[in-house]
Amino acid sequence: MIVPVLVEHLAACVDEAEVAFVFVGKLGAFLRGRNFRREAKWGDALKEMGVQGLRFHGLRHTGNTLVAQSGASLADLKARMGHDSDRATLIYQHATPKR
Predict the structure, then answer these.
(1) Which of 69, 42, 66, 68 is nearest to 53 (CA)?
(2) Predicted local distance difference test score (pLDDT) of residue 84
(3) DSSP string of 50-93?
């Protein structure tokens, strides 16, 4: 489920192009890891929630494991992640009770 505030953000801020960035920097380009952590105040948000050890990149693993669990093919995942090789995509696959 996508929270309503994110739906509003996407409707107002994300380009309708096939590939659009959800989070952008001051110049409209995608945010690199270090810039994202600084701009989004990632560390502050984690502290406020009392969460330790969560890395933003870990969400990429979680998201793609959940998509695979819902039935996406390896080809779907490769396209979603922008990978050219099966091997790179399989790094993001983690065992789950359903898979």
Answers:
(1) 42
(2) 93
(3) T--S--HHHHHHHHHHHHHHTT--HHHHHHHHT-SSHHHHHTT-
CB 44 within 8 A of CB 51: no
Helix (H) or strand (E) holding 9: helix 4-13
Q: How far apart are CA 24 and CA 18, in angstroms?
A: 16
Other C-beta atoms closer than 10 Å to the C-beta of 77 total 19
Look at residue 24 and give its three-state secondary structure.
strand
For 34-47, the pLDDT digits (tens) are 777 787 788 898 89
Whether 99 contacts 69, CB under 8 Å: yes
Whole-angstrom distance, CA of residue 64 vs CA of residue 99: 13
**Contact yes or no for 57/65 (Cβ under 8 A):** no
pTM for this entry = 0.58
Separation CA 23–CA 13 (nearest Å): 9
